[in-house]
Automatic annotation (TrEMBL):
<feature type="domain" description="Polymerase/histidinol phosphatase N-terminal">
    <location>
        <begin position="8"/>
        <end position="80"/>
    </location>
</feature>
<dbReference type="InterPro" id="IPR003141">
    <property type="entry name" value="Pol/His_phosphatase_N"/>
</dbReference>
<dbReference type="Pfam" id="PF02811">
    <property type="entry name" value="PHP"/>
</dbReference>
<keyword id="KW-0378">Hydrolase</keyword>
<dbReference type="InterPro" id="IPR004013">
    <property type="entry name" value="PHP_dom"/>
</dbReference>
<protein>
    <submittedName>
        <fullName>Hydrolase</fullName>
    </submittedName>
</protein>
<feature type="region of interest" description="Disordered">
    <location>
        <begin position="1"/>
        <end position="20"/>
    </location>
</feature>
<dbReference type="InterPro" id="IPR050243">
    <property type="entry name" value="PHP_phosphatase"/>
</dbReference>
<dbReference type="InterPro" id="IPR016195">
    <property type="entry name" value="Pol/histidinol_Pase-like"/>
</dbReference>
<dbReference type="GO" id="GO:0016787">
    <property type="term" value="F:hydrolase activity"/>
</dbReference>
Length: 236
């Protein structure tokens, strides 16, 4: 990837996420020290989450750093095959407005099944019981496409990160599904992360998306300030 690609970090968590340890101010200082030009501050939400206004207020109260654009987002999993998203409806309705986050980061922490999210373990059990892996891949991609269209302002967080957890790899995703995903991303203006933490998507998928006109953005998925803007796998 080119150097400009790595001058942004589009997925950074703070203490508003229960598994992160750095404050928004600490992440901002780390981004400045790393020479980043763009920083997207993101934290985990569910339908029941209530902290989003506080999170947005904290980010907006940060001092301006010359040459650094600070963006916001919330990360939510895709719930089921319909493309439903595990985020508060009022937060989704406010995406891109002065009172809401800029984007929702759609995450495949679990497989979006027809009856709700399938854990990696239950998905493996279904495959072992005879479920065709091709059907799982089609369900995952189709749900992701539906979620992109439903929310309007998304970013794909670590796409296909769930595959190794269910015993599959990106090599199993057919070109036809990748092209459908790319068309939806282009049509909805959805950026797609190349994610340092989860090492995805890999070169084949990233290049096919890029060639189709998808905007790829670098991200660390940092949960501590020391990791903000630090790329090793992405650099390679």
């Amino acid at each position: 990837m080119s150097t400009p690609f790595r001058t942004g970090d589009h997925h950074v968590h703070s203490t508003f996420s229960d598994d992160a340890v750095s404050t928004p101010a600490e992440n901002l200082a780390a981004a400045q020290a790393a020479g980043l030009r763009e920083l997207r501050m993101v934290d985990h939400v569910r339908v029941s989450t209530t902290y989003v206004p506080e999170f947005l207020a904290a980010v907006r109260a940060l001092p301006t750093v010359d040459g650094l654009t600070v963006l916001t987002g919330v990360e939510a999993k895709i719930l089921d095959a319909s493309g439903a998203v595990d985020a508060p409806p009022d937060v989704l309705a406010a995406l891109g407005t002065p009172h809401g986050p800029d984007r929702v980061l759609l995450a495949d922490h679990q497989v979006p099944g027809p009856d709700g999210p399938w854990s990696p373990r239950s998905t493996r059990q279904r495959i072992e019981a005879g479920l065709d892996p091709a059907d799982v891949l089609e369900m995952l991609v189709t749900a992701t496409i539906r979620a992109m269209h439903a929310v309007g302002r998304a970013q794909l967080a670590h796409p296909f990160s769930v595959l190794p957890k269910i015993g599959l790899t990106e090599d199993a995703v057919p070109d036809q599904l990748l092209d459908a995903l790319a068309a939806a991303a282009v049509g909805t203006g959805t950026p797609v992360e190349v994610n340092e933490k989860w090492h995805c998507p890999g070169p084949r998928v990233a290049e096919r998306l890029r060639a189709a006109g998808v905007l790829l953005v670098a991200s660390t998925d940092a949960h501590r300030a020391d990791d903000v803007g630090v790329y090793d796998w992405v650099r390679g």
